[in-house]
Specification:
Helix content: over 70%
Structural class: mainly alpha
Number of strands: 0
Distance between the termini: 37 Å
Largest sheet: none
Radius of gyration: 11 Å
Number of helices: 3
Shape: globular
């Protein structure tokens, strides 16, 4: 079962998992590609920074 990236909760799950384990493990566990994990990390880390300074 593939995870839809249109769901913000799925993005959050990928991001939170990727903070505690490496991208390969996260990608394998959630059945997504490593590039997806890195893209989500980039998107959400920039969002987190934006929210901090807002």
């Amino acid at each position: 079962m593939a995870i839809s990236l249109h769901s913000s909760s799925c993005k959050r799950k990928i991001y939170l998992l990727s903070l505690t384990e490496n991208q390969v493990t996260t990608a394998h566990r959630l059945h997504v590609s490593q590039s997806t994990v890195s893209r989500v990390k980039q998107i959400l880390s920039s969002v987190e920074e934006t929210e901090e300074y807002a």
